[in-house]
Design brief:
136 residues; 85% helix; mainly alpha
């Protein structure tokens, strides 16, 4: 059930993020994106802490294991850049005005954007390789 909730949250984040990238900064969509992202990040961390050791013990295919590590790196980049980009808004709510320089914001946004595409593609590949047996 938790995996389904994670998948739904990630799909909502992907769609809302793409909308923000294409249509601009819509306040409601932006806040929904940030809040869903924070929720997913908080619920994903403990799940991954349990999932990774079990997955490593059960993995029999080196390619699958290596692709899984690359997928994890994409997720770390995705969540990390998202948290850093959300920091100015969170600080503003706390009464502190701080914004990183524009080139930093643009670089974070670019990494976040492309990491999302790699994360969704990697997740589909990971689930395909893990749950479906090819060649039957």
């Amino acid at each position: 059930m938790r995996s389904a909730a994670h998948s739904i949250a990630f799909a909502a984040l992907f769609v809302s993020g793409l909308d923000l990238w294409l249509a601009g900064q819509q306040r409601l969509v932006l806040w929904a994106h940030v809040l869903i992202g924070l929720g997913l990040g908080l619920s994903l961390a403990p799940w991954l802490i349990g999932h990774i050791p079990v997955g490593l013990r059960q993995s029999r295919r080196r390619v699958f294991t290596n692709l899984s590590w690359l997928l994890l790196a994409c997720w770390v980049a995705l969540i990390g850049t998202g948290l850093i980009m959300a920091l100015p808004g969170i600080l503003w709510l706390a009464g502190v005005v701080w914004f990183p320089q524009r080139p930093v914001t643009e670089a974070l946004s670019l990494v976040h954007f492309w990491a999302s595409w790699l994360a969704i593609g990697g997740l589909i590949l990971h689930l395909t390789m893990r749950h479906w047996v090819w060649g039957r």
